[in-house]
Amino acid sequence: MLKFNFQNPTKILFGEGRIADIAAEIDKDQRVLMTYGGGSIEKNGVMGQVKAALSGYRLFEFAGIEPNPSYETLMAAVQLVKEEKIDYILAVGGGSVVDGTKFIAAAVNFQGEPWDILAKQAKIKTALPFGCVLTLPATGSEMNSGSVITRRSLQTKLPFSSPLLYPQFAVLDPTTTYSLPPSQISNGVVDAFIHVIEQYLTYPVNARVQDRFAEGLLLSLIEDGPIALEDPQNYDVRANIMWCATLALNGLIGAGVPQDWATHMIGHEITAMHGLDHAQTLAIILPSVLSVKKEQKREKLLQYAERVWGITKGDDAERIDAAIEKTRAFFERMQVKTRLSDYGIEKASITKLVAQLEQHGMVKLGEKRDITPEISRQILELSL
Amino acid sequence: MLKFNFQNPTKILFGEGRIADIAAEIDKDQRVLMTYGGGSIEKNGVMGQVKAALSGYRLFEFAGIEPNPSYETLMAAVQLVKEEKIDYILAVGGGSVVDGTKFIAAAVNFQGEPWDILAKQAKIKTALPFGCVLTLPATGSEMNSGSVITRRSLQTKLPFSSPLLYPQFAVLDPTTTYSLPPSQISNGVVDAFIHVIEQYLTYPVNARVQDRFAEGLLLSLIEDGPIALEDPQNYDVRANIMWCATLALNGLIGAGVPQDWATHMIGHEITAMHGLDHAQTLAIILPSVLSVKKEQKREKLLQYAERVWGITKGDDAERIDAAIEKTRAFFERMQVKTRLSDYGIEKASITKLVAQLEQHGMVKLGEKRDITPEISRQILELSL
C-alpha cells in the first residue's frame, strides 16, 4: 500500500425527505445564493422543498449553470455574489452545478485573474462556504474537493481542486432522481463506474481493502444500473446508485493506490471539441485505454475479470479480452455508445484532439505517466 | 437502505514514517500532553519518534493508561491537564489509550460530576482537541467518536460518544505494530472482524454498497489475519490489517443499515467481572448470538456464508451452521479461544452477568431490540 493522507469533512444527509433538514446546516443570518441549472428542479418539486426549508432566509437565485459548466456563465454568478454580498452558496442539481459552484466559491475572493485558477492551477486561499442538494448521481462532486470547468471560447475543459472546496454538507435524497431522463441515469452510472476503474485498474500494491471496496462499487453498479433504467422509482436501487456514485470519488478508494486518469483527460478534450456528454467520452475511451495498456495492467485486469465479471476460463489474454468486452457491453447495456463513430467523430479529428492534449500539458498520462501523445493517438484510433 | 447522517472529519496520515508529520497538525504554541499506556512505546522507538517530531513544543506526559482504561486512572490525568493548563492531547498507543484520551478530553471542562458522562450519558458541550498515533490496530477509536471506560471500583464498563470526540488526526504507521506481542494482533483482528459483523449480520435492507464493503473488510481480515501472526514484519499485511480495523468502525459501513451490538454489550460485562481481554469476550459471545438469533438473521447469514466463506452446498440450515462454525474456527485460528470454559468461567457466573446487564440497562439488545436478559442468558449458556 502506498502512503496517503485521507480527510473528508463533508456531512452526508441521506434519504427521502432530507432536504427539509438543510436549515440546520446554514446559519439563519446568512445571505444564501441558490445555484442551479435548467428548470428541472422547478418541475420535480426540489426547488419547492428547498424554498420551504429555507423560508425566512435571504435567498437569491442564479439559474443556468449548464452541463460542462462554463467559465463565462460562472463569472456572471461571481458578479452576482459580489453585488448581493452573498455569504453561502447552495448548489441544487447535478455534478455540473456543484462543480460550477465550487468555481464560484473559489473565484469570488481570488486575488488576480480567476482564469488562472484553471489555466495556471493557481492556489486559492479562501473559498465561500457552500452546501449542495444533489439531484443526479454521477460525478461524486458532492463529497470531494475537485471541479472541472469549460471555457467555451477556448474549447478548453480543465480540472482544479482545493482542500477548501469540500461541500459543507450534501443532501442525497434518492427520490429526487426519479424524474431524471434515462440518458442522465445512464451517464451517471457509467461515470461512477469509470471513476472506480481509474482508481483500481492500474498495478497491484497489495491494497486489499481498496481493491475490495472498488470491486464492491463496481458489482453494485452492475447489479443496480440496469434496474435503475427499467424501474425508475425503485427507491433502494436509486439509493444504491446514489451512494455508489458518491463513494466512487470521495477519496476513499483511491487512498494508498496508484491511479490512472488518462480516460478522463482524453475524454475532456472530446467534450470540449465535439460537445459529447462527459460519460459518453469515458465509455468510448476506457475500453481502448485498457486494451492499449493491457500488459501494464495485466495483474489487475485478471483480478477484475475474476472478481467483478466471474471470468475464470481461458488463458490470461483471453480472460483480459473478455473482461474488456464485458466492460464495453455493460456501457452499451446502459445505453451509452462506445465508439467515436457512433457520435459521428471521424479519424480526421484525432490529430486536433491530440494537439489539444499537448496544449493542455496532458503529455504524461496514466499510472506510470507513460501515456504520451503518441499513445493517446493509438487509444483514440482504437476508439473509432 | 435506511436514512442516515455520515460525517467523519478525522485526518488520516497513513504509512511508514508518518509520525514525523504530526508537528504540522498541532500549533507550535500549544501545551501538549502525551498520553500512553505501559512502556512499549519507549522500547519500540515510537516515543522517540514522537518526541523528535515535537521537539520545541511544551510536552508533558501521562503514562499508565491500562487496557480497558479506568475511570480512576483517567481522573488523575484530568487533574494533570488542569494543573498544567494543557491545550492539546496526543494519544500514543492502542484503542485503550485513545478511548481514555477521549474521556480526559471530555471530562476536563465538564460542568458537574464526570462520572455522569458514562453513567447518565450526560452530553458534553466542549472537548479538548486531540490527535493520536496508533500502535495497535483493533478498536477503530482512532477514527470515530466513541469510547468505552471501566470503573474498576464498580466492576462497570460503559460506552459514551460525542461528535466532539473525533481525533483531529490519526497517524497509522504499520511498522509501529511490528513489535506487538502476537496476542495483541490476534485480539485486534478479532475485534475488527466482529465490529464489521455487528454492522452486517442483521436483516437485509438492500444496502448493496454497505454489504459489499463489510464483506470486503471481512475477506481482507481472513486473508491477512493469519499472515500477520506468521510474518510480523510484512508491511503490506500489517498495513491492510490497520486500515481494515479503522474502516471497520469509522461509521461508513454502518451508515444506513441496522446494527446489532449485543455481542459487545454482553462482552463488556465479562471483561468488567472477570478481566478477560475485550476481543476474547467477543469471540466467545458472537458465535452464540448468531446461533440463538439464526432465524432472525437468516437471509444475511446465508449471504455471509456464500460471499465470505464460499459455502454453497447444503440446505439453508446447514449453510448457516457451517458459516457460524467457520467464524468460530477463524477466531481459534487467530489464537483466540471461543468458550467461557476456556477461560475458567463457569455456569455459576451467568446469573451475575445477566444481573449486571440489567443493572446497566442492557435489556433490549440486538437489531430488533428483542435480546432480553433471558435471551442473553441463553447466549451465555450456549457459550460455556
Task: Describe the protein.
Two copies of one chain form a homodimer. Helices cover 46% and strands 12% of the residues of chain A. With 384 residues, chain A is of the alpha/beta class. Chain A has two domains: 166 residues, Rossmann fold (3-Layer(aba) Sandwich); 201 residues, Dehydroquinate synthase-like - alpha domain (Dehydroquinate synthase-like, alpha domain). Chain A has a six-stranded parallel β-sheet, with helices on both faces. A two-stranded antiparallel ribbon of chain A has the order 6-7. In chain A, a hairpin with a 4-residue loop joins strand 6 and strand 7. The first copy, chain A, starts with a strand and ends with a helix.
The description of the largest β-sheet of chain A is:
6 strands, parallel
Strand order of the largest sheet of chain A: 1-8-5-4-2-3
N-to-C span of chain A: 37 Å
Average pLDDT of chain A works out at: 97
Order of helices and strands of chain A: EEHHEHEHHEEEEHHHHHHHHH
Q: Give the CA-based shape of chain A.
A: globular
Number of strands of chain A: 8
Instruction: Flag low-confidence runs of chain A.
Output: none
The CATH class of the largest domain in chain A is Mainly Alpha
Count up the domains of chain A.
Answer: 2
What is this entry, summarized?
The structure is a homodimer of 384-residue chains. The first copy, chain A, is an alpha/beta fold and 384 residues long.
Please describe the topology of this protein.
The structure is a homodimer of 384-residue chains.
Chain A: E1 4-14, E2 31-35, H1 40-43, H2 46-53, E3 58-62, H3 71-83, E4 88-93, H4 95-107, H5 115-119, E5 130-134, E6 146-151, E7 156-161, E8 169-172, H6 182-198, H7 208-230, H8 235-248, H9 262-274, H10 278-292, H11 298-309, H12 316-333, H13 350-359, H14 373-382
Parallel strand pairs in A: 1-8, 2-3, 2-4, 4-5, 5-8
Antiparallel strand pairs in A: 6-7
